[in-house]
Amino acid sequence: MIRIDHVSKSFPGVVALDDISFQIDSGTVHGLVGENGAGKSTLIKIISGIYTDYEGDIFIDDQRLQINSVHEAQKKGIATIFQELTVVRELTVAENIFLGREPVGFAGALDRAEMERKSQQVLNELNVSFSPRDKVGDLSVANQQIVEISKALVLNTQILIMDEPTSSLTEREVQNLFSVIHTLKNKGITILYVSHKLEEIFKICDAITVL
Q: Most buried by CB count within 10 Å: which residue of 57, 82, 95, 175?
């Protein structure tokens, strides 16, 4: 369970978040909606460790959370997939999934076989057909998003924040993404789904918060 407790955030001359409180139940898909400027992006960046200077508290399973960096958020099981994807197009799927955490084998050499094996395992869990050896730049935006999700799974993510995940997807790709989200939910992963598309919110989310 995640509890946002009286969280506020201001910038010079602007109040981005004003005393926001709500709860996200574990293992659910929770929708976050609001007009432009309502503070959705600000809240995402607080939870994911980008903004560390704010008022209020965030609790996970009743433990007060203090996050000072994105890396620290990841260590605590929180991952974010932003609208602007962060994949490296020149690298393979497996290289992207393990970027910065590459397994090493004998004599400290990169264990590419292990990296590809674990990547294939995650891709199988998500029921997608592309290969760990494919160049990410050759994939559709929808499949590049799946690479980001796969990276989160390898990190043993328990809380996944998705920021406008369908903004560049076709209707068929949206349905495929929803299937992946159901798979993640069945694995017990909590998802904060941020979107302005109310039809999608009502279709995929178990609960909704309006900022």
A: 95
Displacement of CA 148 from its chain's centroid (Å): 8
CB neighbour burial string for 169-189, b if at least 16 within 10 angstroms, e if fewer: beeebbebbbebbeebbeeeb
Give the tokens for residue 128. Answer: 């997608």
Taking the domains of the chain in order of start, what are their residue ranges?
2-86+136-210
Q: Tokens 């979107």, residue?
A: 195
Which 8-state DSSP code applies to residue 137? G
SS3 164: coil
Annotation: CATH topology of 2-86+136-210: Rossmann fold (3.40.50)
Spatial contact of 104 and 161, defined as CB atoms under 8 Å apart: no
pLDDT in tens, the chain (211 residues): 899 999 999 999 999 999 999 999 999 999 999 888 788 999 999 999 999 999 999 999 888 988 888 888 888 899 999 888 889 999 999 999 998 887 777 777 778 888 899 999 999 988 888 999 999 999 999 999 999 999 888 888 999 999 999 988 888 889 989 999 999 999 999 999 999 889 999 999 999 999 8
Closest CA to 75 of 2, 155, 193: 155
- For tokens 């929180």, the residue is 78
